[in-house]
Amino acid sequence: MLPDIGVFGPYTYLVTEVVWGTVALALLWRANALRMAAKTIVVLYPIAYVWDWYTLTVGVFAIKLRTGVDLLGIPIEEHIFMIVVPALILGIHENLHGLSSESNSE
């Protein structure tokens, strides 16, 4: 049985984004890939925003346990999500492949 993180009430989604965002930041820091990740996220963000705005607008999903703060038509947590997810993916990728390729070339 998974723990009930709903105890954070309307801040539940925000708390999860901060936790996973911290993990992503640590991975990118470890891989010395912060600048590379930032460039990629800046390019991906507009696409993710339009996709997210559309799916929320047509009712594909509803987000419970959020702050209720919207920015540009979508929850603030979704904006954070669109930064955290690619950052986490890039952080994992760079730690698996970036660091291993450096050690193989030595």
Automatic annotation (TrEMBL):
GO terms for molecular function: intramolecular lyase activity; lycopene beta cyclase activity. Signal peptide: none annotated. One of its GO terms (biological process) is carotenoid biosynthetic process. The keyword Transmembrane helix applies. Pathway: Carotenoid biosynthesis. It comes from the Archaea. This is Lycopene cyclase domain-containing protein. It comes from Haloarcula japonica (strain ATCC 49778 / DSM 6131 / JCM 7785 / NBRC 101032 / NCIMB 13157 / TR-1). The lineage of its organism: Archaea, Methanobacteriati, Methanobacteriota, Stenosarchaea group, Halobacteria.
